[in-house]
């Protein structure tokens, strides 16, 4: 595995410095506001809490607060969180709701949130050297029993993995041809099927609801697994 030239903190801080606030992802809106026959997650209630792990430019936090949720976001560096605080303050999201952390180290007590979302974030593995099992344990640790985990991860056919190389870490690949120039050198966990993704959370969750995106959008293969899972009420 060769990721020596990849610095996740610097890459993403620089990327978002010139990146304005974007619209929330369509499928995040669908999951939190929609009604679907195979989606068991109830519509959120005002006063409940949500954590967006790897919140990026903060695009989902105003959406969540608009639903009446207490919304917190986590990103991987202090400079990136400082950017988020400046960007989101005019929208009423206070600095104490934005935190430095990662998928293997979240700065919250056990069972802190009703919803935990890792949208395009949990499969980045180079930051801390942890394996995906550590990410699964940490994401569910801060989720209240009976709460809901919401995730998206790219399929092997997603544009991110085009031209990628096998990693020394089992189940991972090194990104080499990111068209946006941000992920090159990143070590990413690749799931071959939605069932494989669910199996990583079976010790902590039940009531798995799964879907996928298979969108070939003007030259980019936006192919993603979606998963919503219920945190077990007892017995982890």
Describe the overall structure.
Helix content is 22%, strand content 28%. The radius of gyration is 17 Å and the shape is globular. The chain has six helices and ten strands. The strands form two sheets. The chain has a seven-stranded mixed β-sheet with strand order 3-2-1-4-5-10-9. The protein is α/β, with parallel strands linked by helices and 236 residues long. The chain has a domain at 8-18 and 25-31 and 45-154 and 195-231: 3-Layer(aba) Sandwich (Rossmann fold).
Compose a concise summary of this entry:
With 236 residues, the protein is of the alpha/beta class.
Low-confidence stretches are: none
Helical content, roughly? 10-25%
Give the biggest sheet.
7 strands, mixed
Q: In CATH terms, what is the architecture of the domain at 8-18 and 25-31 and 45-154 and 195-231?
A: 3-Layer(aba) Sandwich
CATH class of the domain at 8-18 and 25-31 and 45-154 and 195-231: Alpha Beta
Task: Please state the average pLDDT score.
Answer: 91
Report the β-strand fraction as a percent range.
Answer: 25-35%
- Give the spatial strand order of the biggest sheet: 3-2-1-4-5-10-9
N-to-C order of helices and strands: HHEHEHEEHEEEEHEE
Structural class call reads: alpha/beta
Strand count: 10
Could you say which overall geometry the principal axes of the C-alpha atoms support?
globular
């Amino acid at each position: 595995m060769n990721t020596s030239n990849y610095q996740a903190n610097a890459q993403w801080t620089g990327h978002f410095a010139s990146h304005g606030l974007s619209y929330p992802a369509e499928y995040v809106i669908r999951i939190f506001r929609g009604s679907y026959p195979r989606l068991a997650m109830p519509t959120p209630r005002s006063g409940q809490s949500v954590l967006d792990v790897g919140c990026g430019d903060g695009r989902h936090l105003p959406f969540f607060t608009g639903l009446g949720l207490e919304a917190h976001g986590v990103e991987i560096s202090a400079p990136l969180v400082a950017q988020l605080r400046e960007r989101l303050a005019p929208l009423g999201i206070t600095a104490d709701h934005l935190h430095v952390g990662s998928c293997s180290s979240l700065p919250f007590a056990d069972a802190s949130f009703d919803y935990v979302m890792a949208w395009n974030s949990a499969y980045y593995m180079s930051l801390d050297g942890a394996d995906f099992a550590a990410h699964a344990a940490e994401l569910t640790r801060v989720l209240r029993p009976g709460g809901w985990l919401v995730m998206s991860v790219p399929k092997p056919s997603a544009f991110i993995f085009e031209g990628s190389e096998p990693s020394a870490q089992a189940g991972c690949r090194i990104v080499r041809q990111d068209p946006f120039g941000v992920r090159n050198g990143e070590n990413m966990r690749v799931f071959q099927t939605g069932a494989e993704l669910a199996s990583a959370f079976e010790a902590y969750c039940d009531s798995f609801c799964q879907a996928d995106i298979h969108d070939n959008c003007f030259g980019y293969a936006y192919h993603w697994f979606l998963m919503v899972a219920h945190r077990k009420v007892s017995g982890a």
